[in-house]
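Give me structure tokens for this 168-residue protein.
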Amino acid sequence: MTKLDSHETKTAFAARVGLTKGRISQLVAEGLPVRADGRIDVAVGLAWIEDNLDPARRNKGGAVPTRATTTLAEAKRLHEIVKVQRAKLAFEREQGQLVETAAATRTVFARARAERDAHMAWVQRTAPLLAAELGADPRATFAALDRMMREHLEHLADLPLGSLSDGA
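Here you go.
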């Protein structure tokens, strides 16, 4: 809680109560007590505002209110902003510029699974051919290629997604 100084300038008092300096000058003309040096006794000024100003009109001076209050007009304005944002998103989705997160996740996961399976199938197809070409044991060749491919796939799985960018 802020400490109440015994008196403040009109500008400081205006900031404290969420009004403009001009509005404070209007209130002085309407009876807000001011000291002889032009400063406002804070306790007296706050009491005068509480007694003489309609609470619904206190923050009409253009200054930022000291506490968050949502008026009906502000709620309507925010509602309209949300409607515009939703319409923009719907338009971008229709244009093919947006996709749903769940659909993108399913697609990427399915593609990754298909690529993994294709790599493992490549090992099964290639191991006997390589063994025949080199005159090696087909089982040992398959075991070595399978182990190496799995290590390679694990390494790829551990890479952050950003490191696999296509340069775009």
